[in-house]
Amino acid sequence: MRYREDAGDSAERSLLNKLIRKSVVESSYNVEVQHNDPSSALFSVKTFEELRLNDLFHESDFSPCRKPELIQGIYAMGFNRPSKIQGTALPLMLADPPQNLIAQSQSGTGKTAAFVLAMLSRVDAMEKYPQCICLSPTFELALQTGQVIEQMGRFCDGINVIYATRGSRPSRGSRIEAQIIVGTPGTVMDWCLKLKLFNLQNIRVLVLDEADVMIAVQGYCDHSVRVKRAMPPSCQMLLFSATFEESVWRFSGKIVPNPNIIKLRKEELTLDNIQQFYEACEEKEDKYQALCNIYGTITIAQAIIFCQTRQTANWLSHEMARAGHCVVLLSGELPVADRAEIIRRFRDGMEKVLITTNVCARGIDVEQVSIVVNFDLPLTLGGYVDYETYLHRIGRTGRFGKKGVAINLVEKCCLYMLRDIEEHFDTKIKKLNTSDMDEMEKLCH
């Protein structure tokens, strides 16, 4: 079923980004805040000290606790100052009385650390029962969030996290003493409503991470709603989503009353700083020769070569490796952990040329990519040009204001597709002769 495939792709892309990010990336998004109380002043923080975690006192059941050790945990994780999403969202999440929040955030900008800090700030370590829940769409994503909780809370004595995921099933009548539960919606629902392992009336914060992905997974939406409705009205809701599609709004309307809203607005991805070229080829062997000419002539920082199918990607990587070229293959058939390791090595410059399918077409950014090669043009299932995928593919180069180069290797019978691309994007794709060394050497100058 299509929606399950899309949900799986989104979840895996989110996990890949979590695994490969060593530090917070500078977001190119502008933050727009819609406050639930228009009369309240909006503000953001530039330092973590401004959050006054040292000065917060536990005055009511749901107010933040005084936790100077959280500042230690934040700095120990390598955060020097709040990212854009952190600086804007944290004052809202740490407000007293608690306020609900719906936030859109791109991967790598520190949003997991933001809501983890919010959860840890409201936990009372002296009380040995669940007080915060974070729901994620997959076990792997839940594990990543739990690791952030453990790292940030390492100096907080007495605060523990437990994982409510498939295969983890305490016996009926067990007593859960961990203050934070991280898990998938179905398992959390079983723990609290079926096995009655903890009392939902004690929950102070409920986080829904990757809400757009969960909505696409059959049953997760209903599970999340059932869990939320069993909680006290005072429970703080924090919902994070990569997109603000209509499905997210419908879902949030069921589960998040009177929320503050953070939207991240970004200028549209354009082709203005990307030089586009094409070479007409007879068949894939001619494409391969053109690719070898490119590889042997141009000084490449790093390059991504996109193929339409796994079979073509496998064939191409084998041929290039056999010819002595140093390339690495990234395919959707590889386990997520293996894909994350390949991307990490590519990001760190240990691999220079990445051959892949559309698994890297969007959502995963590597700043050093100077050239993108479309070994095949991206097509829809109907055989037409997939304009959106084309935009995101070649958008892997020319990132962060830098100049980039995109080269399309196109069968002569498909040259009309280039005209379609030019017309669609109102752009110009120049003819290139990869066997002309002088022309090739001018390419990146």
Chart the SSEs and their pairings.
Elements: H1 2-20, E1 30-34, H2 68-76, H3 84-93, E2 101-104, H4 111-122, E3 132-135, H5 139-152, E4 161-164, E5 180-183, H6 185-194, E6 205-208, H7 211-216, H8 220-229, E7 236-241, H9 246-255, E8 260-265, E9 274-281, H10 284-297, E10 302-306, H11 310-322, E11 328-330, H12 336-347, E12 353-356, E13 369-374, H13 387-394, E14 404-411, H14 415-425, E15 430-431, H15 437-441
Parallel strand pairs: 2-7, 2-8, 3-5, 3-6, 4-5, 6-7, 9-14, 9-15, 10-12, 10-13, 11-12, 13-14
Antiparallel strand pairs: 1-8
Helix pairs in contact: 1-12, 3-4, 4-5, 6-8
Describe this protein's structure.
This protein has 445 residues and is α/β, with parallel strands linked by helices. The protein is built from 15 helices and 15 strands. The chain has helices spanning 2-20, 68-76, 84-93, 111-122, 139-152, 185-194, 211-216, 220-229, 246-255, 284-297, 310-322, 336-347, 387-394, 415-425, 437-441, and strands at residues 30-34, 101-104, 132-135, 161-164, 180-183, 205-208, 236-241, 260-265, 274-281, 302-306, 328-330, 353-356, 369-374, 404-411, 430-431. The strands form two sheets. The protein has an eight-stranded mixed beta sheet with strand order 1-8-2-7-6-3-5-4, sandwiched between helices. A seven-stranded parallel beta sheet has the order 11-12-10-13-14-9-15, with helices on both faces. Helix 1 packs across helix 12 (336-347), helix 3 (84-93) packs parallel to helix 4 and helix 6 (185-194) packs parallel to helix 8. It is elongated, with a radius of gyration of 24 Å.
